[in-house]
From TrEMBL:
This is Putative orphan protein. Pfam families: YgjP-like. Residues 15-218 form the YgjP-like metallopeptidase domain. Coiled coil: none annotated. It comes from Pseudoalteromonas tunicata D2.
Length: 226
């Protein structure tokens, strides 16, 4: 009998047996005629490989924000300290991110996620306002609106109406990386595409874009706020 717990999913159409491991769950896909005893022996024979895959997946799982001891703000790591208080607030004090939650809050963890998201959004908003004003003057461009949202697959966007959106996760990246995204999105005010003229405009105002692009590509999945 296999010591590894697994789920069986059978199908009349399936002709082969397959073992898949996702989210730390082992699933065996098999034709309906295959016996449980055969599957147990198969899983047992693959136990070393299965254990290795489970270990790799476990290593890739990001810890919950409530088990982390620190968080990045503009590329710098700060310790996080959670506490209960009379009122809820999140702020930076003496190089520590303080997350105070009112004792009356019933669902503490989801509420704390919102607290941290608001804190990051506020910090990012302040920086964006300053740097957008600078680059708008440099590029002789102007935008019509600003939004901060939590995207999973993009860092920013620019609508045809001139509204620019930025990913909340940028609050965790260094200032020079945010500057690249700002220039990128402002350039879309003039070129709503990624044409040669678009990249020429970006490179004129941000010559080190490849460095910033590589940072974002390599670190995107290290950043999270929930």
């Amino acid at each position: 009998m296999s010591s590894i717990l697994y789920e069986i999913k059978t199908s009349k159409k399936r002709k082969t047996v397959a073992i898949k491991i996702q989210k730390n769950q082992v699933t065996v896909y098999a034709p309906t005629y295959v016996s449980k005893h055969y599957l147990d022996e198969l899983v047992q024979s693959k136990s070393t490989w299965i254990s290795e895959q489970l270990h790799k997946q476990q290593a890739l799982i990001k810890p919950s924000i409530f088990t982390r001891q620190n968080m990045c703000l503009f590329g710098q790591e700060y310790p996080i300290r959670f506490s209960l208080s009379k009122q809820s607030r999140c702020f930076l004090l003496f190089n520590t991110i303080e997350v105070e939650t009112a004792a009356r809050v019933k669902t503490i963890e989801p509420f704390r996620i919102k607290q941290i998201q608001r804190f990051l959004a506020e910090q990012l908003q302040l920086y964006l306002a300053q740097r957008l004003a600078f680059y708008c003057q440099q590029m002789n461009l102007d935008y019509q609106g600003l939004k901060i949202q939590h995207y999973r697959r993009r860092w920013g966007s620019c609508s045809s109406k001139g509204v620019i959106s930025f990913n909340l996760l940028l609050a965790q990246t260094p200032h020079w990386v945010i500057d690249y995204v700002i220039v990128h999105e402002l350039a879309h005010l003039k070129h709503l595409n990624h044409s040669a003229l678009f990249w020429q405009l970006v490179d004129t105002h941000y010559p080190d874009r490849k460095k910033a692009e590589n940072w974002l590509k390599n670190r995107m999945f290290d950043l999270e706020v929930e």
